[in-house]
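anyone else get weird line breaks when pasting these?? whatever heres mine. first is seq + tokens for prot A
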Amino acid sequence: MTWPHRERGRNRLQGRGPVGRRTVQQYDPLGAMGARPFVVVLGAVGVLWAVATSVFDRDVPGSAPLSALTVLLVAASVAVVLVASSPFRAPFPRWAFAVHVGLLAAAAVVSSAAQWGPDRSGVNDFMVLITAIGVVMAAPYRPWTDLAVGGAVLVVVDAIVWGTGAAAYPAGVPVVVAAFLAATPTLVLTAAAGVFARTFSGLAERVQIHAGSYSVERAERDGITAQVQRDRSRILAEQVAPFFAELRTRESVTDDDRARARAIADGIRRVMVAEADRTWLEYALRVTGDRAATVDDPAGLAAAMDADQRTVVRAFVRALLRSVSVDRSALRVTVTPSPTDVDRVAMAFSVSVDDSDVGIHRSFDPYFAVLRVTFPDLDVAVRPASLALRFSYDQH
């Protein structure tokens, strides 16, 4: 039997649907998290460069208020990227990228107005490079199509702004050439960012398709079979073999022996039935060797997760149970129908952790980042000595 949610999972792995629109951050959230310091540095350099050039390298007296407004617009665009790129707000929304591009475009216009006059040096035209840097800053967080559109907007703005300045104050360079030179940095870095995002996503998609060839159904079936075999072997070693060894020493079989044989057979049957009904989440808890952690999933709704979601949750579960600061006996996982959406399932984790909130973040922040990308509605509550998570996913 093929469940609808499993069919949808296979479609995603095979490249149909929204996979082509996924970003570097969505394919590699930990990589995007590691790249964030570079984004912070780029943003800080852009703001400091705008301040230094506006104060110390002006062609004309211009307008100090407009120069200050330019710096504020650049700083605001950087702030938008830094806030939206946080791994705990992932994925980076399209509206944030649109605001970022809009602020940079406005800063380019205001910068030109602030120093309107003869352009004696191209070095102080800092916005032509800051707009280019702005596109690069967003490369890990938006698909290549968005980067191309945003970059094209900034290319046009740069060309118009500095082309207009060249027309008003000729400097011996044709207007078209001046416009092209002003737009070139943004054009080049937009192309580079777009190629990076598209190439990375394409490679990641192919890797995902290859990994998905080992289907969810087959993985579940193999997991159940292996566990049943282990438990059956344990029963054989602990009960059946000693029983038969004892029978070999007797001349006849008694009613008590028959009753004991039936009890052993019933035990094997119960193990097989229980293992067949066990979900992948319960297997994840048992793989760690820790049976004190509990799963409250009476309807078996954990089975509605697709392969990607299971991989992420399983990794988080194992990280929890392998942490020396986690009280494994206090780990509880609850899976219930979502109270707000009949087509979704709510999963909640609660566990006691012998650590401060800072220590908990230090230990599990990378897992929170991956969970946030996989489950956008993730809610994390970190307090000293306790951790609680809640998120939801499609049931069908």
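and prot B, same format (seq, then tokens)
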Amino acid sequence: MKGKKILVTGGTGQVARPVAEALAEHNEVWCLGRFGAPGIERALNEKSVTTWRWDMDDPSGDSLKNLPRDFTHVIHSAVRRGEDGDFNAASGVNSVAAGRLMSHCRDAEAFLYVSTGALYARQTLDHRYTESDPVDGVADWLPAYPVGKIATEGAVRAFAQVLGLPTTIARLNIAYGPGGYGGVPMLYFKRMLAGEPIPVPVEGQNWCSLLHTDDLVRQVPHLWRAAATPATLVNWGGDEPVGITDCIRHMEELTGIEARLVPSAVTRETYQFDPTLRRALTGPCAVPWRDGIRHTLEALYPRLVRRNTDHGLGRAA
């Protein structure tokens, strides 16, 4: 994409920051946020990203009042996750913020809302979830999070049709890569480094569809092109089914650091996506997950990666 005016929320996080920085090379990119982390706003400015202070929790919505309205594309990734367990706040803050943002940018060519696969009703560990599978918003590891996402998806669907704003709702799987904290696989690796137990299912393993940053960034323009009214709904993950236990064992092989896997009835639930629709919209992914994990470890923990195994970030055929 070139010559567009793009608005990004959640641009300090694992998902949207690499998108903002990549698009800023050939487009005018604005990033909304609170920028509470030291140095983050300056870092974005140095990448030619214009920053604008915005608080999703602001009940008045005044922080959007003087923001330009002539954005051609929007990616809304910011979220109140609901760590405090307040279901009403998670639903209200997220859905109202999305509605205000869509109203402000009603003349955009496309709006992309980043939702989550964590809202699906849990089925078998190896079930391949499709966009038509039932949702229930139950997630023991962060209960208010999927409920807030379901509420916000409803708001986004409504505003897309009422405003006539072409929209894509992308239910994200596990994004990971060398930027930020590295994503969920690196959270597991930190537990490995600390010698902390990692709960795994008593039988079988959890499955997911890891999505490397390089693929995520490349796919965003395709998801904008797929925007429509009513909103387009798509599962946003990688092409390959990835077992969480297999991923942890792979990190053991790459680093020699042992993981303490503890069978448990309660684990961090993950979801494997059927990539059929997403591949039709974006084309195939380019980064095989094993190469992506190595690449991420080499970037974040360069001294811990063994040098006697295959090198380089491979590309899928």
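btw re prot B: The radius of gyration is 19 Å. The first strand starts at residue 5 and ends at 9.
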